Amino acid sequence: MGRVVLVTGVSRELGQRFARGLTADPDVDRVVGVDVTPPRGDLTGVQFVRADIRNPVIAKVIAKEDVDTVVHMSVVATPDGASGRASMKELNVIGTMQLLAACQRAAGVRHLVVKSSTTVYGASSRDPAMFTEDMAPKRLPRAGYAKDAYEVEGYVRGFARRRPDVTVTMLRCANSIGPRITSPLSQYFRLPVIPTVLGYDARLQFLHETDLLDVLRHATLAGVHGTFNVAGDGVLMLSQALRRLGRPTLPLPGFAMSSVGSVIRQTRLADFSPEQVAFLTYGRGVDTTAAAEVLGFRPALTTAEAFADFVDSLGPGLVAPSRLALEAAGALDRAAARTSATTELTGGGRG
Amino acid sequence: MADAEIIPLGTRGRPGRGTGLDKPSSAARRLAPGRAAAGRRGATDDATPPADAPAAATGEGDSTTAAANGAAPVAATGAGATGATAAGAGPTAPQDPTSAPAAGAASGPAPGSPDAPRAEPVDGAATTDPSDAAAPSAPAAATRRRTPGIPVGDWISAIGGAAVEVFGDDGEQRLAELLAFLRRRVTGDYVVDEYGFDQEVAERFFLAALRPIAEKWFRIEVRGAENIPTDGGALVVSNHSGTVPVDGLMTGVAIHEHTGRFLRPLGADLVFKMPIVSELARKGGATLACNEDAERMLSGGELVGVWPEGFKGIGKPYADRYKLQRFGRGGFVSAAMRTGVPIVPCSVVGAEEIYPLVGNVPSLARLLGVPYIPITPLFPWLGPLGLVPLPSKWLIEFGEPIRTDSYEEGAAEDPMLVFNVTDQVRETIQQTLYSLLMQRRSVFG
What we know:
By secondary structure, chain A is an alpha/beta fold. Chain A has helices spanning 13-23, 57-65, 85-105, 144-162, 184-189, 209-222, 238-245, 254-266, 274-282, 289-295, 303-313, 315-318, 320-350, and strands at 3-8, 28-35, 46-50, 69-72, 111-117, 167-173, 175-177, 194-197, 203-204, 206-208, 226-230, 236-237, 249-252.
């Protein structure tokens, strides 16, 4: 008998692709997709139920469809639409509470997969270089997505305690990046001139969007209990990433950064929350040993490769400065070639 | 008060005989040879950019105003206007210092005398003055414009030649390497480790910049370099002194010189809080001094440096020099025990004298959130010059490694054992410091 998987948040790009990908799996009988808004894209093979996870209707859906695996992907980092942050918090926290309450009552539920984020570790100057799963943030997040994720994790832990028979897999994913993903960080990298914090260079880790889908699928099917950091191998410094991106940067002192951030936020070019400023100041690294050894998952792409794919996707039209950088690099190459040629000549003359 | 009052006579207190107006009186203008209109024009032109003013004025009139300028003592009645004209002509004068004094000298003996033969040279000098000023500047501009016109090939061959001169016969290869390096930096095509350590930058910039300081300024003498393990994890524990953590940098240089390994320092959280410093620290291989990072680095086989005295050691007054402070809470020992790596005691003599800390401004330090504001004999009195460290003679001795892998499992959880090992390391360093001090002939020797 195959599995019946309920996926929340299928109207978002990532949820949609994940649910669709899951239908192709032979182990999965049915995929039930739940979201408040109807999906815009293709959801072939996915049974869509328009329901709000913020109210108890979700319990009926779980009972009626005989769901045994719940994949919670509705913890979102990007406020969507006009309602902004308030509805985002509502969806993240209240939605999770209702969903978990429903799961607790549903005897058939055997697996729960929650997509969390490495944001729960925060970002500060007192952070260790690499967070392992058992480390707590040095400073509790006070607002925004980080706080949501932190609270969601608390509820999930509570659920795991109350239903020890359910395998709970919590995936703390590093910032996902890729050609099709929209996140605060990808919006940041799409800015024409990229503000950075003067005098700091953050360490960044990325997870490619295909790896994100893969790890969710892997966790759904493998059913390994525990919390796991998921990130591409290696670390990129922010300055290094920006050089690879080839966009002009604008280093600002820390205090100016937050005001610039709020301006950018108001223009809706990018979501520039205080926690993101902290992240871009101090950066964050997570240890992925447990994911490799216990969960048995290794991202296919390293941090650098994932970022390279993202850079490629931005297209040549947008990244004129990158061509400039490449030109400069080419000039350096030609200069190097010519130098060796001329010095050979002069060397020959002297000899 | 009343007895000190000065009653101006006639001139309303202004020096000279005039009315105090800032324009020459009509009588004064009439006294000056040439047309009055020219004089007035010259005066009004002062407001316009000065370089052209004398040139724009018509020939003779101009020369006469110029002459009047030169002969300021004589035409003192027009002090305001002529002074201003002279000042106006000033900016052009420095362009050709030879003609300007010539004009002054020529006009000196010919004040107000309208005789043509003598006025002619003056006229010539005065009119050529601005044109002279313009003339050299024009060719100069032309050559400046020509400068970028040097073919790129010439530049390259010049650089290539220079590289051969500077780097020797493998110059072109070295230069190609340098260019490849620059290319990697520009495109971000380099690798950093998970702590943000950028080996390329550390080798090419940090170590390259610090090496001459270590060799020429502090004349560092290293002893016991054979005690540094050439591979595998090890913990170098050193005393800390010198107001600014120069000793950490120098120990890193010394270790790299003798073993080719990079010392990975553990820094206080203040280091990572400060802008620029935090960036450089991470690039240079440092990480936060916490148990997680220390154990991670040690089990990763790195050579980790730790200064357990911390700010207490580095910011102690000069009177307490070479007296070891408390060695933290012994966290470094438990980290070494858990990972089973040897502890290499390191004693640095000489760093205490680079910035002798004779005072502190605790209130300002609290305000700025730093542990201390140093007052040294040279800082802040000499400003930036006071930041130059005194050239003391340095001795660095690495002691015999203290093994920690012989302790049984869970030894790190035994506080008494940890304290004992901590004291052992501390005593070793203190004794070595005393013996090194005995061997040192003088502070600057």
